[in-house]
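Re: the multi-chain job from yesterday

Posting the exact lines I submitted so nobody has to dig through the queue logs.
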Amino acid sequence: MVIADLTSDIGLDVPVRRIMLSRCTDEELERMSRQMGIGLSLDEMKRVRDHFSSEGRDPMDVELEALGQAWSEHCCYKSSKYYMRKHFFGMGAPYVISSNEDAGVVEFDDEHAYVVGLESHNHPSAIGPYGGAATGVGGIIRDIFCMGAQPVATVDPLFFGPLDLPQDSVPEGVRHPRSIFHGVVAGIRDYGNRIGIPTVAGMIQFHEGYTGNPLVNVGAIGIARKEHIIHSRVGGPGEIYILAGGRTGRDGIHGVTFASADLSSSSEDKDRGSVQLGDPITKEPLIHACLEANEKGLLRGMKDLGGGGLSCVSGEMALAGGCGAVIDMDRIPIKEDGMAPWEIWVSESQERMMVSVLPEKVQDVLGIFEKWDVLARVVGRIEEGRRIKALWKGVPVLDLDLDFFTAGPEYCRIVEARVVSREMKEASFPDPDRPSLEKALLSLMSDPNICSREAVFRTYDHEVRARTVIKPAVGRPFSPGPSDASVIKPLSGSNKGLALASDVDPFFCEIDPYNGTMASLEESFRNLVCVGARPHSITDCLNFGNPERPDRMGDFARSCEAIGEMVRYFKVPVVSGNVSLYNETETGNVPPTPTFFTVGIVPDVNLCMTSDLKEESNLLYLIGMTKKEMGGSAYFRQLKEECSCVPSVDLEMSKGAMEAMLELIGSHLVVSAHDLSEGGMAAAIAEMCIGGGLGAEVSISRIGRFAGLEEMRRDTILFSESCSRYMVEVRLPNAGKVEDCLSRHHVPYVKMGTVGGRRLRILDEDEILIDVGIDILDEKWRNGLRYVLEGSQ
Amino acid sequence: MKVSDIRVAVLRMEGINCEQETYDAFERLGARPEFVHIKQLEKRWPDSGGYRDLEEYDILMLPGGFSAGDYIRAGAIFASRIKSSVGKDLVRFIEEGKPVGGFCNGFQIMVELGVLPGYSSTMSDRPEAVLHANDSGNFECRPALLKMVNRGSCVWTSRIEKDEVRLIPVAHAEGNLILDDPDRAYARLFDSDMVVFRYCDTEGDFEAPYPYNPNGSRFNIAGICNDTGNVFGMMPHPERVFDRIAHPDWYRKRISRDEGDGRAVFESVLDHVVKRF
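And the result, structure tokens for all chains:
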């Protein structure tokens, strides 16, 4: 045992070892890192060794563990930072208050700011779907209220393998996607519902690439008075650290190092201890107590203990305030006896918050926590000098230079960008007849990636706090259709609203990470626009494979470039985000999945727009340009057709359409609006019909057939997923004004037909292409998830 | 009594999470709501200035949520804490005719306390009903249509016409009301005018299946009161539809009224207190 050979006990009863790095060969350094499970590379181990040599000593195990955690990919973004900085970091907007802390802080109105964050909890959810997802929600909620904001909504984008995957296609050591799906949804339900923050939006995607490595991204947003925004830094020397909330235990040890490596077939057994345990009934009063103490002006700094635990929080908060700190580990409330100092130091146990308080305010703060029955203890104090120290039974067990501790490595990894052909291709078979088109539409409506998510979001309380004015379902209350985005009215005294959308199309990104990323981000903008909101900020969660592989890193770099392109053109800033790499197993990596959580501002919630059709004989207009970009489309996927040309964003056209839409909605000229996405135009109209319980008769004869253009196939027109397109419903007397507005913004449009009846009829000249009853469309769409869950049992 | 003098205790403990919107509803109608933590009634508050007694209030409100996590039986822990500390005060409060209301978890707590249905005594020794798991086996967050069927005894619904249908959403996993001794209990409930709201469909029909009846409750019962009409509990959440804009379909019928279907519940009880005290 190398460790035994190269360590020496400090003495007596202190279970701390000094790791004799100075005596290690390169091979031994690597083995040491592996055996301790700290995930540092040889170069990083050497850097650590040299640092301690310069201090004339070897590190204690606590110190090495702390560095392993702080320098993990998850904590210090060592592979991703370079590209994010190059492409979109720092591209602010005047209304961004802070974009470099646990969550982004953005101006909402003169007096208020919203606080927004999005995180991944992918690896824990693969091993323990229920606990992993629950603690994911818990973590992002802490990120919001540690800035002094009252959380008002959560958003959960989820990605699983196919629910009907045959058992023999599930790799060894991997749970069936259905089991992961049920566990994750139940975890979000039981945690989110208990803490009383509505889960109002999200997305669910199924793709074979997520089979071994599901993605659980969790986002949240909160609201605060600007003067109550508090930062993750101490005020100065002499202040006192108070640790509040849950006890520290052995759960969640090595969580971030586990999240910074590929999953393997033995992960379930080996890494179970890395998954934290959540307790919403500790969290709920913890939120009240922290916000109360903050609003009374008793706190100087506040930060949550997430990935990185006590170690990262106590060091980072002190350093951010230009100080150091000393922690008395005997004062940390622990869950079980016998925990070694290093375990206490790096544990990622949930529901814990650190606050920094002036000595004279300590009693007041402890009193507030006592009121709420929340455990809180004085655990340390802030000192001059940029070092973090820890005592265990009075013995110093850690004494780290904070500048070294937080100066994690940064890599410019080798990238290998793929070459993607932009050759437009239509289907290879003859243009289908009516029965085939109808069959295709019905099959798209029940496609697991398109069908209703009601079976999931009805189990989430999306209305608690009574401020969800546009809900995940819109239209007839008992047979609703899909909502493009949800809208929260965060303040009682103001009609201003926050629209929330999340989006990414992994099928596009898998073929073409650059165009796929742009299309995904633009779709989330379109979702906001369709409820009448102007895109205001972006929060991203970039889920990719192993960054040490040049092809995966190439995808990541292209995706960052695309985000930069969009951010610069639309002047909508990225205000916070998260990167999750190493999303791969022995059988492959996940499709590149840059998830976007975008926030829009609705000037007056009374003007919000929805997608359900409103009344007979209104007109339907298609806005935007349909192109032969069938790559990654649901239609091509179902028919196993190949095409590498995914929808691309024409920035100018996209902006024009967006501005026109906002003008139309803001001046009451449209009565419903829906964006065209998966399943294309046919699926979009069908969804509008379902929500409104009304039929429509439309013609495609004027679409994509401009002089000089090669004729487009009918299935392409019906099912293309080209970007920047919307369907709107217009009252007859407003048709002229609508057309004027669209022309003024140089946006192409086609008047397609009228609302009415109980059937969806799509014609080409006199030929009927599709003629299906609304109830049949409704049944297919509404029960899609049930078909796949029950059909495979 | 003036509305502005009416003191409403909005009771909380950890896991209660609908207290803010419940408080807001009373405040917006001009009453004086106050958050009261169970520890304040138990006199276990860190500072004695925060001690409270039930008799200081005119209305007691038990909001929704997951008190203590609802890990045992929904509402059971909160109920036992109330009963063991201020049980006698609560009985006096009810017997003085002061209104007590509970929505969702609040209703579950009241049933666990034995103050609903409460036909044998003001507060029975053991629960006489249970709010059982929904038939669907799921947490159900969805709109519900409620027909007001009370013939006049309930002080929480005087502003709602009999047989009027209102849209008030539900969000619970355990809302299926089952009474002890069902053969006699249901008849007694109806005969004594203790049924207040029943789930119905868009035609107002009680034969409505799921999802109109979101939990499978027998006779579609959504809310009940005691035989004196001052103690009232319901599974749906009227505080969530205080405003029209919180309805799931407000944008389909753009009407000028900004009042939501739940507001009348709060107006009714305030009306009652104004007239009676």
